[in-house]
Amino acid sequence: MTDAMEATPPPEGAGAVEVAPGVLWLRQPMPSFVEHVNIFALEEGEGWCVIDTGFDSPEARALWEAWLTGPLKGRPLRRMIATHHHPDHIGLAGWLCARFGIPLEMPRSGYFLARWLLAEAHEVPPQAMLDFWHRAGMDAQVLAVKARQRPSAFSGAVHPLPEGYLRLREGQQIRFGGRLWQIRMGEGHAPEHATFWSCDDDLVIGGDQLLRRSSPNLGVQFYEPEAPTVRDWIASAEALAAHAREDHLVLPGHGPVYRGLPARLAHMARRHRDALDRLEAHLNRPRQGGDCFSPLFRRSIGPEIYGLALAETLGHLNTLTAQDRALRETGADGIWRWRKT
Q1: Which residues belong to any copy of the Metallo-beta-lactamase domain (predicted)?
Q2: DSSP H or E segment with residue 173
Q3: Could you read off the pLDDT of 200-230 as tens digits, one per residue?
Q4: Distance (Å, rounded) from C-alpha 236 to C-alpha 234?
């Protein structure tokens, strides 16, 4: 499905596209297959309210300088809001908050998880992470390479956050950008992922919870190894669908702005349910996590996305376990294996 808004050319370089009155769409290039992260700036009196920021890097700061003097017209930031804690969304939040003397507004879970990840920066993976990937069934050669690499780009891509923040809550009404918004949280991709639904017009700020062309990664991390991320995401999709309208204009974290949110949510939920069914059939004998790529992704998984693929595979396996459709057992080698019940 393509609509007129999806056909709107995205902003290029340091440019911006006005997608609604007083709402600018900016994009920062990403060093990955995702290509770009979306940033939205909404007029806030004589300044701006910014939703998400992109990564922290010299190139990203230079782009922000160009935005501030270009499409943002030299006017100051008045509000800094983050949808969730991932580095492509809060990388420059601390830098911008310090520069303009404004607080960071974001969900509690995301704020404290980001602070912990910044404090736990390691040059090599901690043993708990290596043990987790071993139990998950990571290919031995891949694991050997990961054991020598810096485990996360988080601290290198996120400027230190403010010492305090303003909490965004489920069901809260908040005013910014000349509109009143209802906050609705999603789960599965990130804990307490904030989405914002305008009470005054047709706008929905969806972050990574409401993407148009791809499904957000629903990966499991070593610090929450049994998280049923796919179950949580489907439940969130169903809850958000109750509020979705065909005419909503969705401003997502990546990809084009779009309409047709009810059909999009139904499509993504159906794809995950179908993937769970294929995975359940695949578990006709005990399988490690690394043995389960083919029924889920139905394509070859290269080394550049192996970790993401395994993390999302665990999200599906944990969901089947939580639904009593699969049983997880630990072998003498310490590796988890799943089989259908």
Answers
A1: 36-254
A2: strand 173-176
A3: 999 999 999 999 988 899 999 999 999 999 9
A4: 5
pLDDT one-digit tens code per residue, 16-34: 999 999 999 999 998 766 6
Contact partners, residue 133, CB within 8 Å, separation at least 6: 143, 146, 222, 310
Query: Is a pLDDT exceeding 80 seen at residue 167?
Result: yes
- Tally the C-alpha atoms within 13 A of residue 26's C-alpha that lie toward its C-beta: 25
Q: Within a 10 A sphere around the Cβ of 9, how many other Cβ atoms?
A: 8
Q: In terms of DSSP H, where are the helices of the chain?
A: 58-69, 87-90, 93-100, 108-119, 127-136, 140-146, 154-157, 229-241, 261-282, 293-297, 306-322
- How would you class 225 by CB atoms within 10 Å of its CB: exposed for 0-12, middle for 13-18, buried for 19 or more? middle
In a domain, 2, yes or no: no
Which among 63, 27, 26, 56 has a CA at the least distance from the CA of 41? 26
Structure-derived torsion over alpha carbons of residues 115, 116, 117, 121, reported in degrees to the nearest 10: 110
The total number of structural domains in the chain stands at 1
Summarised one tens digit per residue, pLDDT across range 265-274 is 999 999 999 9
Query: What range defines the domain where residue 100 resides?
Result: 17-340
> Please, are residues 313 and 287 in contact by the beta-carbon 8 Å criterion?
no
What tokens does 316 get?
């599906």
- The reply to whether 148 falls in a domain is yes
